[in-house]
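#struct-pred

JT: dropping the chains for the assembly here, can someone run the whole complex?
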Amino acid sequence: MVKVDLDKVKEIVEKVKQETLEEGDILINTLHAIQDYYNNFVPPEAAEEVAKLLNIPVSRVYEVLSFYSMFSIKPRGKYVIRVCKSLPCHVTGGREVMEALKNKLGIEIGETTADGMFTLETTSCLGLCGVAPVIMINDQSFGNLTPEKIDEIIERFRGDENA
Amino acid sequence: MPKSNVVLVSVDSNSVLKGAKYFKNLFQQLVDEYKLSDFVEVLETGSFGVYKDGVIIAIYPEEVYYEIKDAADVKKVVEEHLLKGRRAKDLELDAELFTRKLSVEAKKVVEETRIVLRNAGVIDPTNINEYIARDGYMALAKVLNEMKPQEVVEVVKESGLRGRGGAGFPTGLKWEFTMKTDADQKYVICNADEGEPGTFKDRLIMEGDPHSLIEAMTIAGYAVGATKGYIYIRGEYYGSIQNIQKAIKDAYEYGLLGEDILGSGFTFHLAVRLGAGAYVCGEETALMESIEGKAGRPRLKPPYPPVSGLYSKPTVINNVETFVNVPQIILNGADWFKSIGTESSPGTKVFSLCGNIVNRGIVEAPMGTTVRDLIYKFGGGIANGKALKMVQTGGTAGTFIGPDKLDVPLDFDSMKNYGVSLGSGVILVIDEDNCAVDVLKNAMEFFEHESCGKCTPCREGTKMLVHMLNDISKGKGKREYLDAMKNIASTMLDSAFCGLGQSVPVPLNSMLNNFEAEFLKHIESKESPCGICKFEKPKKKLVKS
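RK: done, full complex below.
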């Protein structure tokens, strides 16, 4: 279990509040910041604290967290791999890239590797169709992919981790 | 002292993925090593609009373009071009690619016409001074000093500018409605939730020329009487978010945002809000819900945003590309704008060329450019010597057309007149190696995933469509599915709550009508005719011995 530091949550909320134009426009930006801080997920305790600080019902925060596909309330891998599933990638070799990822990691879409390193997700178009097929690993993008390049990329991430 | 040579490295996100940042640093390093730094400046810029396998760079004042694939290429360009003053021929790209001209019907010549992209690939997007040097913020100064809000609205109305997000609603009318609604607070929103598959124009505008958007939104604020604005950007667009945030910060420092802009007494504040992975938030009222910190489900219309938008206040909401046209219209006048494009759709359109095409990238061409010219003249034709099978125009919510419709001129009326949609300007080329069933299944899975679940026709309709297409792709399809799918689509058109569900019939019907034979083949044959769909083997009956 991740230990949630309530002071840190408060600090994040205060920071996002400084960019606000209207009260009420900061929930999603706040949740992004919290998710970045806790490495790819929003712990329920942090979500409850956000509700308290913003004076909104917890149910509203959960609705938002479950509606948007970038958010998760379950822990995910250290690296979230988002595979573009849209047509421009699909017709330029995206099918093979998707299969290569599943085989390489030994998991299906929505699953996390046993070592907690990678979570595999699909995403809709990332607007990088000039270099399709494309994946994102956390905030980094990779384009012009082939099954061979997938192999390389995953090995590189694993290597960095063990180094 | 100004330096005699400038090396421009395009560092839009597509290029960064090919090592643009690394190459730029390497250029700088080599320039320093060869002690050329007094003469040569290495700068970052946005997209040149063309994508090759490598990263494209330009050297001025000669205006020579090179394609850089690895470190050795960088070295070669520095040693040959910069040091010895001769061109590295084998890396050089045809300059024609960048000033693309093409002849249409041998009479009038269509050229790439840059209004929206005029600064992309020319300036350093993170440097406000470079934008200002290219007449940046001049339109804002003109508006604040010389024009009444009413006059600004009139010019935009007169120009005939229509919404570039896909729907094509006249921008001036939107502004006029908002201006005329009395309220204590109004808002301007930029819809930068670019999510229509195949569209990457807004991303490149925001990464390549962020200040033009800020200037345009401030003008809109002045015209309609709004003092606050939001740019709603997709959460996945890290590069755009960064550049826009930097640009906003710089604009505040220069007094081009905030209180009393340019001493005019006009106040305008701007902030960025992020999406979090929901296509439906591109629908304007869903987007407003999202800014308000709620799940992004669309609202009932009317009332429309100019009457009751964000926080129930009058709101102007436009696409990135739409906004960016405005400063140029203010500076050059409505007649200039109307002289470009077609009568019903003045101006240019930024097209995103993608799929199995030689030159993937963006091109800004006058409205009314044909699909054929976009693919063959600007796009260089079909990749890998394959034959063209179909084109999807306008995005995943757009039409699938066969090679017989390539001569349709694209503008806002081409859907009505020829059944070919302009949408967000996507030209997705699909070659002979692809299967119509598989492609349509992919498109419908997209809608199933992105349906927000609020209304039944869309939530259940998309599920049933995917179910039937799945069956067909596994060899379990039935003939009656074809009519059933069209039926579901027409129900969705009539009864879905928002544009997402209502647009599903566009790709579905165009595909079924243009490629029916291929669907029938899948339904009637025992084995997959395309090699992409995987047919399930019929279960063998056990024979007792």
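JT: nice. Confidence is low (pLDDT under 50) at residues 102-108 of chain B. The two ends of chain B are 96 Å apart (CA to CA).
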